[in-house]
Design goal:
about 375 residues, alpha+beta, 2 domains, four-stranded antiparallel β-sheet, OmpR/PhoB-type domain-containing protein
């Protein structure tokens, strides 16, 4: 007696473990042919439907596809925002970088020159600041008078330095370009190509460029104008940068996280679709000709035949009608009262026994044609289910 109790307890535990392993491995109970084991496990866990996920196959597919699409859209939006921010950063920094390069170039060159420029004559506190005054330029072969705008001392010094270097042929764009490229690299703005030009259009005409502009795809251009005193000196910069330049400037943490989620969601979606494709081969489907496809078996209710690739089985009329009743019912569930009323309404007293016998015979026929489907009912339940 003791041994029997222990054996019964071990079997009960084994059955429970089997259910857990089957559940996590997503193995359908259709593969379990032992009706006692199946019934015992369902009784332990008190779940009449062990396939709740399968009821929501379409919803799961839509949810996974929607999640994948949402992640993709979010990824594209964030990418576009960061892309535009990086472009704005480049365009916002170019002019200050050009101005800094120009000032450094002027400063280095003027250190080697003797250039007297009295500060007191250009005091920023002068009341006529911003007005124009007449000035005269005198060289060995030329003398001319021009109107000059009175500016602060530092601006006046910069303008005069430009004019001096330009007249003495010491103002060259290649020197500015070297400084500009170095400053841009520090800011992580690595241009595919850059070109800088210095143009003057009054006393000494100059249009000199550093960098080939003919083969450039110009992504951005800017200029600094009216830098000279009597000369109209302008600096121009053309910039050609690649996507790699923008990518290096873009923040990428959010994009990497979304990309990882997108890959995981995509793999999950693909796996789910593959699984669904396999499951569709094992579904009950009503065909256009009125027949039913039960997994790999074709059921013709008119000829009462079950047919697979290897053999054919003709069902008796009662089994044919009973199987059709299951197939036409929602979720392939039929209440016991419905079965008894359909077949044994006039002899209701003995109908339960006859129903059990008819169900057992249909089970045998399905097994005989090679179907893994079973007709299941839980103890105390009021319906049968074709699963």
């Amino acid at each position: 007696m003791y041994i029997q109790q222990k054996t019964s307890k071990i079997i009960s535990i084994s059955h429970s473990l089997c259910f857990i392993f089957y559940n996590f491995a997503n193995i359908d109970f259709k593969t379990i042919n032992n009706k006692k084991i199946s019934s015992h496990l369902r009784h332990i866990f008190k779940t009449p439907d062990y396939r709740p996920i399968m009821k929501y196959k379409k919803h799961i597919t839509k949810a996974l596809a929607g999640l994948f699409l949402s992640i993709t859209i979010a990824e594209l939006i964030i990418f576009w925002v960061h892309y535009e921010e990086a472009k704005y950063y480049i365009h916002h920094e170019i002019r200050p970088l050009l101005e800094e390069a120009m000032r450094k170039d002027i400063s280095e060159k003027m250190k080697k020159e003797y250039f007297y420029f009295p500060q007191h004559e250009n005091d920023p506190k002068k009341k006529n600041l911003g007005k124009y005054e007449k000035r005269t330029y005198i060289s060995q072969d030329t003398t001319f008078t021009y109107q000059s705008k009175i500016v602060d001392w530092e601006t006046a010094l910069l303008r005069s330095s430009h004019c001096y270097l330009q007249v003495t042929n010491k103002l060259h764009p290649q020197d500015v370009k070297v400084i500009f490229d170095s400053l841009a690299t520090r800011k992580k703005i690595i241009a595919t190509k850059s070109a800088i030009g210095i143009i003057s259009t009054f006393y000494k005409e100059q249009n000199e460029w550093a960098g080939d502009t003919t083969s450039m795809s110009i992504d951005y251009r800017t200029s600094i104008d009216k830098l000279g005193d009597f000369e109209n000196i302008s600096y121009l910069v053309y910039l050609d940068y690649s996507f790699g330049t923008i990518w290096k400037l873009m923040p990428k943490i959010a994009l990497y996280i979304l990309l990882l989620l997108q890959v995981l969601c995509g793999i999950t979606l693909i796996g789910w679709l593959i699984k669904r494709a396999k499951e569709r081969r094992k579904e009950i489907v009503k065909l256009k000709n009125g027949n039913y496809k039960i997994d790999s078996i074709i059921f013709n209710p008119d000829t009462m035949k079950l047919t697979n690739e290897e053999k054919e089985l003709v069902l008796p009329a009662q089994q044919n009608q009973l199987l059709l009743l299951f197939l036409q019912s929602e979720d392939h569930k039929v209440s016991k009262d419905t079965i008894m009323d359909t077949f044994w309404a006039k002899n209701y007293s003995d109908s339960r026994t006859k129903m059990t016998t008819a169900i057992d015979r249909l089970r045998t026929s399905l097994k005989g044609i090679g179907s893994e489907r079973i007709i299941y009912t839980q103890k105390g339940s009021d319906y049968y289910e074709l699963i």
